[in-house]
Amino acid sequence: MDDITEKSDEINDALVDRLIEARKAKGLSRSALAEACNIPPSTLADYETKRQVFPMNRAIRVAIYLEVDIFNPLKQATTENEEVQISINPENIQDFFMMLLKNDTSLKSEMTELKSLMHEVLKEVKKEDTPADSSE
Asked: Model pTM?
């Protein structure tokens, strides 16, 4: 097995583990999650037991539903009491979405909408980070 395949498998395994942990933390059964995310229960079972690789479009859908960060699955999960700082660079977001679209063109409208939303969020964050005018 080559290094890329090994790393890919490691990332998929970490992703699956993170999603299972989040599902269980929310007290959801596999079938309830499958129904909520419009994924056949047997297919979700195949992803969770690692018989199939979890496709990004479905992993994103599940992660959004579970409200869990999957973009760095090898990073240790944090406890509820720990603060997490996320640094987002708009150029990185665009690169990320372009990579997703290259791999799965069926996601184009969803990714375009999500990209737009992320840019709006970044604009709001930048406004909040800008110091107030001291002359007022």
From this structure: 0.54
